[in-house]
Design brief:
Oligomer: single chain
Shape: rod-shaped
Largest sheet: 5 strands, mixed
Number of strands: 11
Structural class: alpha+beta
Number of helices: 10
Strand content: 15-25%
CATH superfamily of the largest domain: Histidine kinase-like ATPase, C-terminal domain
Radius of gyration: 49 Å
């Protein structure tokens, strides 16, 4: 037996409509008639929504054909009349009068609410007591939400995969840039080292050829002067070679400190006096410390290298008469040593890298200042080996302040 899905609806409406039809035809007061019309409309509407089987039939049909079986349905009431000797209209859709009857085949939406819905069919349920016309719509507007819900897991995994790829790319790019930076630093180091090695070698070569000259060999004073020059340049060359060897040693092993308990003020005075009589004789150095004979555990050789490097940089990177202030004080049972200069200063970008191996500041006329980019690297390594730290404060054109903090023991 074929069914349109409204058999139960017809049965319930037939039982209800006979009594409702008699009651509304017996009423005279317009208010009572209006209230009865509303009651009848509500009943018809509730029955056709709750008791229809068409939605279930369509869902089963869609499932058998492999279509989406989940949908919403809407019933649009077109016309409802109670029939007796005369006809009493209960409800008539506003658009009903402005369009042709459904059976003409010409379809127009009743309102904007139905434009996105699909009309399955229109139905005319008619009995001795009523005529009931309505349209049945299905709505797949939630299909996107359903699909999104079903694919949310795959979507989340895809987004996660993209994020992982982006993160890996960023890390790879960062590592690539770091490798490029290190490669550039090593290239600069090789160029600078070549230049530094050529200087004493060239001097030694020229001095050797000078000794071959007869007029020089006959002058003992010239021979002695040339020999001293060769000796001085040989020492400088040996220092450069030792510096390279120390780099290799420090890369392979940790610092092997030979600490001794010494008076910090005495050691600093020795280093400063030695520096002034050597490469810093044109610098004005002012000592502002008094540790009162305090003793500290230090590796004297490495500490001397640390302080010498700071003093050498203060002289090297000064475009005018170097002025160096060396301060010392106690802070939380630590020795703090500040080395201030009136040099060219360091910008904020370079300050992040000046303690890196082979790094040389990019500001100013860098070719004017010789160096291998190792002085501050040694300062950092020596300070950390002693359990301390070193920081810098500087502004371009205003000089720099290096602060070394060392534990007492």
């Amino acid at each position: 037996m074929r069914t349109d899905g409204f058999d139960t609806v017809r049965l319930l409406l037939r039982n209800y409509s006979e009594q409702a039809n008699k009651e509304i035809h017996s009423l005279k007061d317009p208010k009572d008639i209006y209230a009865k019309k509303k009651e009848i409309l509500d009943y018809f509407t509730n029955v056709v929504y709750k008791e229809q089987d068409l939605s279930e039939l369509l869902s089963s049909f869609f499932e058998r054909w492999g279509f989406e079986k989940k949908f919403k349905f809407t019933i649009a009431i077109i016309d409802l009349e109670m029939i007796n000797n005369d006809t009493i209209p209960i409800y008539q859709n506003e658009g009903f009068l402005n369009r042709k009857r459904p059976n003409t085949g010409v379809r127009t939406s009743l309102s904007d609410n139905f434009k996105e819905k699909i009309m399955v069919n229109w139905f005319n349920l008619e009995d001795n007591n009523y005529r009931f016309i309505f349209e049945y719509y299905i709505d797949f507007s939630d299909k996107q939400k359903v699909i999104l819900k079903e694919t949310s897991v795959f979507l989340a995994m895809s987004i996660l995969s993209i994020l992982v790829v982006v993160i890996i790319f960023m890390i790879t790019y960062k590592n690539l840039m770091e490798e490029k930076r290190l490669s550039d630093l090593k290239t600069d180091f090789i160029n600078n080292m070549t230049h530094e090695l050529k200087t004493p070698l060239s001097t030694i070569t020229v001095a050797g050829k000078t000794l071959e000259m007869k007029q020089i060999r006959d002058d003992d004073a010239k021979i002695l002067e040339t020999a001293k020059l060769i000796g001085k340049q040989s020492v400088h060359l040996n220092q450069l070679i030792n510096m390279i060897l120390e780099i290799s040693m420090w890369e392979r092993t940790q610092f092997q400190l030979d600490k001794k308990t010494v008076e910090i003020e005495e050691i600093m005075n020795d280093v400063i006096d030695s520096f002034k009589s050597g490469g810093g004789n044109n610098a004005s150095i002012y000592k502002k410390y008094n540790f009162g004979g305090a003793k500290v555990d230090l590796d004297i050789v490495y500490f001397t290298t640390l302080l010498n490097n700071l003093l050498s940089n203060a002289v090297k990177y000064s475009e005018k008469q170097p002025v160096i202030d060396i301060e010392g004080f106690w802070q939380d049972n630590n020795i703090c040593i500040k080395v201030s200069d009136n040099g060219i200063g360091i910008n904020k970008i370079d300050q992040k890298h000046i303690f890196d191996k082979f790094y040389r500041a990019s500001t100013g006329n860098i070719h004017k200042f010789k160096g291998l980019g190792l002085g501050l690297y040694y300062v950092k390594k020596i300070t950390e080996a002693h359990g301390g730290d070193v920081t810098v404060s500087s502004k371009p054109g205003k000089g720099s302040i290096f602060t070394v903090t060392l534990p007492k023991n």
